[in-house]
Amino acid sequence: MNTYLLLWNPDKWDWNSLNEDSDSCQRRGFFDERWSCGVTKKIVPEDRVFLIKIGRGQTGIMAAGFAKSTFFKDAHFSKPSKTAIYNENRFDVLLPPHKGESLLSGEALPEFTWSPRAGGITIPPKIAGITRGALGKTPCSDRSRAPTDHK
Description:
14% of the residues lie in helices and 29% in strands. The chain contains two helices and seven strands; from the N terminus they run E-H-E-E-E-E-E-E-H. The protein has one domain: ph1033 like fold (Roll), CATH 3.10.590. Strands 1, 2, 3, 4, 5, 6 and 7 form a seven-stranded mixed beta sheet that branches. Strand 3 and strand 4 (60-67) form a beta hairpin. The two termini are 19 Å apart. It is globular and about 40 Å long. By secondary structure, it is an alpha+beta fold.
């Protein structure tokens, strides 16, 4: 199992349902969502994924989970006339930054570059383990497991 870093930049895409999605994660123990994976086509089901918020406001790792699918192409999230590469994910941690939750800052793990220009980069196993451990006491994490249904 490999681990990948996905990006969310509110300057490029406004996540209007973030509060509802976070509430759903806390209620159900997970939240399913497709996400752009940059240019990588290496993500496979059960690979671990982390989602980092970059750009304006509070930044840091705000979600963790597992891939549910391999890559697929669809309309770009902010430029519908173009295509982007996505995969389906099951997030078991989702911390909305505006609800006062403390995001995991990359400063806590200086051995890795936490501000990439594109999503889908590989996180080394040692860093992935430390990162997951730091997120271990966050909402939904008590139900953390790889998804068993890969639709």
